[in-house]
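Researcher: Quick test of sequence recovery. Tokens follow.
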């Protein structure tokens, strides 16, 4: 699979996440953010474990717990806390700084040097998102701002560490996604019970909403996201993140009757253009002398190996325990 196809498939993850707000407001019971986070993560993780039929081994038990905490268990509650204490536009703008966190951590832990073009794309994407979602006179809440920054930092650290650790030999992204979602859901579950009490009564509409969030929005979405992390640079993947608030704005306009002003349309163009620029491959310097290739341990599988492992996940899942 060529790079453009990998980028396109990975981009479907933030596009799916952009539907979270509409589904939450239109289908789910109000004021239950931790219960919603649990219902997103835990059923999705258990479903992927049932499909892959693969459990962690050795050090991957604690690694999966760490990644699950960073990408899911800490990220979801912090994200909802920011959303509840801040206007939605402010929370989205704070979330859009995630690519800058990833660029710094990737340079430190992965040796991925961010180019000037990449940094400018990250700044332009955040600017474009702010034009789309930020409203004049939006109030700031210190706890909400800190929660928003912490949620972005948590997801950024999870993205970089997922890239750094790779996957165990013979394990595909389907199983890895199941491990992380299950670990994150189990982490959120007691917190939800402590702060929100017993689960609310659910009607058919709420069950449909939770089913969509768990299967499409989370199980498929995070599988595509972690699959993309294994094949693209961490910075390239995270620069697809602004597609989430852009999708939310489009859904609000198309399905909820929310108007889009000229400034918002311009911001969408800026953010989308920055996202596209962030996916362009780095230009090679002309006249550079090729250096000898030195064999070294590579924790990440090649594209061909990833394709084979994913096929094994689906067709030979019953052979693993």
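Model:
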């Amino acid at each position: 699979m060529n790079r453009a196809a990998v980028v396109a498939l990975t981009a479907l993850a933030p596009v799916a996440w952009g539907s979270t707000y509409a589904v939450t407001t239109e289908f789910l019971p109000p004021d239950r953010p931790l219960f919603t986070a649990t219902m997103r993560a835990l059923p999705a993780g258990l479903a992927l474990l049932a499909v892959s039929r693969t459990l962690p081994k050795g050090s991957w038990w604690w690694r999966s717990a760490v990644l699950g905490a960073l990408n899911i268990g800490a990220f979801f509650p912090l994200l909802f806390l920011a959303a509840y204490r801040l206007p939605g536009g402010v929370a989205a703008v704070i979330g859009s700084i995630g690519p800058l966190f990833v660029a710094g951590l990737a340079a430190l832990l992965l040796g991925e040097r961010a180019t000037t073009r990449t940094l400018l794309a990250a700044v332009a994407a955040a600017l474009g998102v702010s034009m789309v979602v930020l409203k004049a006179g939006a109030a700031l809440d210190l706890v909400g701002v800190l929660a928003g920054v912490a949620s972005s930092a948590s997801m950024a650290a999870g993205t970089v560490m997922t890239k750094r650790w790779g996957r165990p030999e013979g394990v595909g992204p389907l199983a890895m996604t199941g491990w992380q979602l299950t670990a994150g859901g189990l982490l959120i579950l007691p917190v939800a019970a402590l702060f929100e009490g017993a689960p609310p009564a659910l009607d058919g509409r709420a069950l449909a909403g939770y089913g969509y969030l768990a299967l499409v929005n989370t199980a498929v979405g995070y599988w595509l996201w972690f699959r993309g992390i294994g094949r693209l640079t961490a910075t390239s993947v995270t620069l697809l993140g602004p597609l989430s608030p852009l999708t939310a704005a489009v859904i609000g306009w198309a399905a909820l009757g929310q108007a889009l002003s000229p400034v918002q349309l311009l911001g969408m163009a800026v953010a989308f253009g920055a996202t596209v620029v962030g996916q362009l491959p780095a230009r090679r310097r002309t006249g550079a002398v090729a250096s000898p290739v030195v064999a070294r341990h590579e924790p990440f599988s090649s594209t061909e190996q990833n394709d084979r492992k994913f096929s094994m996940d689906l067709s030979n899942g019953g052979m693993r325990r």
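Confidence is low (pLDDT under 50) at residues 285-321.
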